[in-house]
Amino acid sequence: MMNNPSPRREPEFKILRCDTPPSRENESEVECNLCSLDPICALLDYGSEKVELAKGVLFRRQRVARGETLFRSGDPFHSLFAVKSGSFIMLHKKEQHPDQVAGFQFAGDLIGADGMAGEHYPCTVRALEPSSVCELRMARLQQPGRSLEAFQRGIISILGQEIAFCHGLHASLVRQNGEQRLAAFFLSLSSRHRARGMPGSEFRLTMTRSDIASYLGLSRETVTRGLSRLQKEGTVTVSGKRVRLERFDLLEGLAGNTSCA
């Protein structure tokens, strides 16, 4: 099982071709050309049955159940994962304190790149809902007889994009008060959804209010009050876990009231 804390075995997953249609539960999955892992998939020429390189290297559409763990903090690094559908939460362990939410990953996002340098994953990643991932097993790329130069260039490019995204995201969330952080958070979610070809004005919050509070460095009560104020002002509409952004101009104005640190 993926939630076993010991080093993960390599099960024989059924490999699906790129043109395999998604199941009904994955109707909202991201298109391959909009996925963070697409540059590597292109190098593998994954849509061709004649190419042997992909076998044992790239595993597509692996199902991950809600609450299931991809890997835990401290596990040896072995793979990069791209979210095909669903969403995940990243957690940093803190001694004698609740785990700190380090981020949320959605369809098209890359997971695990931060484990490459230290050869261990620095955080625990868990599915927030029924999801699916594509897995690139890095050790298999190092088998004798394989040219790694093109893959190394592709991976460096991917990591560069991830670093730029993370810097921009973290800077945008350094705000003076809860409402500003919430506004920046919603705008970030909207931008990420649009970049993956999905609606950016309405989406479902798969994380809890406590998760959002931990990520933004706020209390749960502050998040709840902030959401209530934004809704009262007509900036957003909240119905259960669904959020609709009604006034982007107000959100942008609120998020831009302070300079990024």
What does this structure look like?
With 261 residues, the protein is of the alpha+beta class. The chain folds into two domains: 24-171, Jelly Rolls; 175-255, Winged helix-like DNA-binding domain superfamily/Winged helix DNA-binding domain (Arc Repressor Mutant, subunit A), CATH 1.10.10. 30% of the residues lie in helices and 23% in strands. It is built from six helices and eleven strands. It has helices at 38-44, 149-172, 178-195, 209-216, 220-232, 248-255, and strands spanning 58-64, 69-71, 79-85, 87-94, 97-106, 110-111, 124-127, 131-137, 202-204, 236-239, 242-245. The chain has a four-stranded antiparallel β-sheet with strand order 1-8-3-6, with no helix packed on it. Strands 2-7-4-5 form a four-stranded antiparallel β-sheet. Helix 3 (178-195) crosses helix 6 and helix 4 (209-216) packs across helix 5 (220-232).
Keyword list:
261 residues, alpha+beta, Jelly Rolls, Arc Repressor Mutant, subunit A, 2 domains, four-stranded antiparallel β-sheet, 6 helices, 30% helix, 23% strand, globular, disordered C terminus
Count of DSSP strands = 11
> What share of residues is helical?
25-40%
CATH superfamily of the largest domain: Jelly Rolls
Unreliable runs, pLDDT <50, ≥5 residues? 1-27, 47-53, 257-261
Helix and strand sequence: HEEEEEEEEHHEHHEEH
Task: Give the termini distance in whole angstroms.
Answer: 41 Å
CATH class division of the largest domain = Mainly Beta
Structural class: alpha+beta
Shape, please?
globular
What is the residue-mean pLDDT, rounded to a whole number?
Answer: 78
β content, as a range?
15-25%
- The CATH topology of the largest domain turns out to be Jelly Rolls
Strand order of the largest sheet: 1-8-3-6
